[in-house]
Amino acid sequence: MKNNLNTIIKKELSRFFMDKKLLLTTAILPGLMIYIIYTLMGGMFSSILQTDENYVYKIKAVHSSENTENFFSQAGLSFTEIGANELDDAKQDITDGRLDLCIVFPESFDTAVSAYDIADGTPAPEIQLYYNSGETASLESFQTANALFDAYENSMINKFDVNTSEAVYDLANGTDLMSRIMTSIVPMLFLTLLFSGCCSIAPDFIAGEKERGTIATLLVTPMKRSSLALGKIISMSVMTLLSGISSFLGVALSFPKLANMGDDTNIFDFSALGIPEYAVLLLLVLSVVLVLISLLSVVSAQATTVKESSTAIGPLNIVVMIIGIAGGYMGATDANVLTSLVPIYNFAKCMSAMLCGTVDMANIIVAILSNLVYTALCTWLLTKMFNSEKIMFPN
Amino acid sequence: METILSVHDLQKTFRLSKKQQKLEKDHKTCKVAVNGLDFEAYRGEVFALLGPNGAGKTTTLRMISTLIKPDSGDCIVDGASVVKEPGLVRSKIGFLTSELKLEDFFTPNYLFDFFSDLHGVPQQERIVRKDKLFGTFGIDQFAEVKVANLSTGMKQKTSIAISLVHNPDIIIFDEPTNGLDVITAKTVTDFLLSLKEEGKTVIVSTHIFSLVEKLADRVGIIINGRMASCGTLAAITAEKCLEDVFFDIYVKEAGSDEK
Ligand SMILES: Nc1ncnc2c1ncn2[C@@H]1O[C@H](COP(=O)(O)OP(=O)(O)OP(=O)(O)O)[C@@H](O)[C@H]1O
Ligand SMILES: [Mg+2]
User: Fold this and answer.
1) Considering only CB atoms, which chain B residues are within 8 Å of A218?
2) Do A213 and B69 touch (CB under 8 A)?
């Protein structure tokens, strides 16, 4: 009866490849969509996070000091001197984005600094930096100026300043949060695309066959019901996998664009992902495809029409997404092997961990194996359903 | 005469869904579709199940072809029990009803090969059978046209050819001429008679008297899931025409049901 399995798989696949509309919506569109979305997203982020390399910061200064001006010009920054009465206009310009930074020195800053004695107890001369955190260029110029003044301070009084790179630390924290969001979004996006692939396949190939009366034609042949169930799940998995590979290609091709969003803003750690890791990732994807398609097949088999089946799958979609988001978010921290037994969650968790640079084989193997067990369980259930006259012939 | 099909005390009750209950009088929760049915069919004959709508014809044929399971009783098909060896029964019969559809995306040619594969028909035999069946029904003309683009008659002819890929000895046909025009209907009835000539056993269900008179050697009149009368067509129509016999029985049966 192994022959029958091949026959079924061959038939389902030729049906798939002959149906141009189905082929387009499941195998071609997902990859194209993800590529376009990611490329757009990458472009958007980089324009937010990164300014043109040749950009010259527009900086103005009140009571500018000669020494600092020299120090700044060494770092490639320059500022124009304005009077104290023009400060309010300059502030408005910063708010409106016409100016990046305004530095207000105390009067005769250089002499005040050289005369200043820490032991004296009087407050040190204060420099005020006005900037706009909503404007990337302004924020950057502020950070640069801040760092420069710290360095200048060090050079002046020759002492070690611990707080120098406070602003740099802030930036690092921002990247971490960003990368965490991204690593949880990517598995979820994968799940969304795989699920939508399944959604256009399972109802049509299971409930659709019931609705059109073609499954009955199969059931009067001596073929084993288990061959039919397994054949359908395998062939539908191939279709979904094609849709998955299409998404995968979309991601892989647009990753560089997404990953190099800024000079320092490396969202994903790709040094950890070589060919073997991508292969593991593919196996992981395959296992979750099997779970999704067999689950949807079972849901689909109890429906009498494609429409009814799609309606039944709707709520499942939400559940899968929620579990997927949870798994993606927990991925970086959840190393517990037991949670890798939870279907869907295990995929999102392992994938997100991999995107963070952690390849935890124990978790991945448990995830893949448990997914195979769930698939076997669903296949068995589907066989039972094909055998049940109440389900196959409700009237 | 050799018995090839015997049906013993066949019983089938459907539990009705809420929607179905509303259609029933008294809002019954169950419907007895087949109620202790007994009959036999002999090798090489055409046996017709004649009955009104809802009599239980389709249900009976579905049980014989193992699509649904009897609540009790059994059918022995060429020595195989539908309860104990459904797989074996399936390999011995060709079953055809209008509810068995062909997939729109494939051509008759592809489907013939596909079902031959499922039945394990050897390559050589398959070519011969395809030639013969496609020739008989003129399927050659549209063998490479997708089912979606075929007319009802063409689909029906293709369905018949495909249900017979494995050259079964028993052909079970529910309402063979339903929805067909007179010309296609004649092709089908002529073909069924030619199958009989070949020594095949043909079981048909219908509510059309003329079809029974044209085709059947023996007839079973089924009303409310029970066999009201069964015998050779000649014996049943010895005194009155089939239609009168049927209505006499129907009035009697309906009357006994009222009590
Ligand atoms: N799956 C089912 N669930 C509930 N009731 C059913 C089911 N299948 C058949 N019935 C009922 O059983 C009875 C017998 O149906 P069946 O289809 O066997 O009749 P039939 O003789 O083929 O009639 P027709 O000439 O209309 O085809 C009918 O009352 C029908 O409503
Ligand atoms: Mg019927």
Assistant:
1) 118
2) no
| Residue A50 CB neighbours (<10 A) | 17
B220 lines ligand 1 (CB under 6 A): no
Nearest to A15 among B68, B90, B105 (CB): B105
User: Residues A227, A60: contact at Cβ < 8 Å?
Assistant: no
Query: Is the CB of A3 less than 8 angstroms away from the CB of B120?
Result: yes
Q: Which of B77, B117, B167, B178 to mutate to test the interface with A (most CBs of A within 10 A)?
A: B117
pLDDT digits (tens, 9 = 90+) for B39-68: 999 999 999 999 999 999 999 999 999 999
The mean of the pLDDT values for chain B is 91
CA of B145 vs chain A CAs: smallest distance (Å):
13
Pairwise CA distance, residues A275 & A268, whole Å? 16
Q: CB distance from A17 to chain B under 8 Å?
A: no
Distances (CA, A) of B219 to A235, B2, B96, B211, B242: 46, 17, 19, 11, 10
* C-alpha–C-alpha distance, residues A68 and B153, integer Å: 95
Of the partner residues B17, B65, B101, the one whose CB lies closest to the CB of residue A214: B101
Measured CA to CA in angstroms, residue B247 lies from A146, A273, B4, B38 at distances of 105, 81, 30, 21
Cross-chain Cβ contact A212/B103 below 8 Å: yes
pLDDT band at A171 (very low <50, low <70, confident <90, very high): very low
Best mutation site among A201, A217, A386 for testing chain B: the one with the most B CBs within 10 Å?
A: A217
Give the separation between CA B21 and CA A20, rounded to whole angstroms. Answer: 43
Six token digits for residue A373: 């067990």
Asked if residues A291 and A344 have their Cβ atoms less than 8 Å apart, the reply is yes
Q: List, for residues A229-259, the tens digit of each pLDDT value.
A: 999 999 999 998 888 788 777 777 776 665 5
Contact A393 B105 (CB under 8 A): no
Lowest mean pLDDT among A121-130, A369-378, B204-213: A121-130
Q: Is 50 exceeded by the pLDDT of residue A17?
A: yes
Q: DSSP letters along B110-125, please?
A: HHHHHHHHHHT--HHH
Q: Which helix (DSSP H) or strand (DSSP E) does residue A111 occupy?
A: helix A109-115
Each residue's pLDDT tens digit, B109-164:
999 999 999 999 999 999 999 999 999 999 999 999 999 999 989 999 999 999 99
Count how many Cα atoms sit within 13 Å of the Cα of residue A292 in the half-sphere of its side chain: 38
DSSP label at residue A161: -
Q: Is the CB of B250 under 6 A from ligand 1?
A: no
Establish whether residue B207 lines the binding site of ligand 1, counting it when its CB lies within 6 angstroms of any ligand atom.
Answer: yes
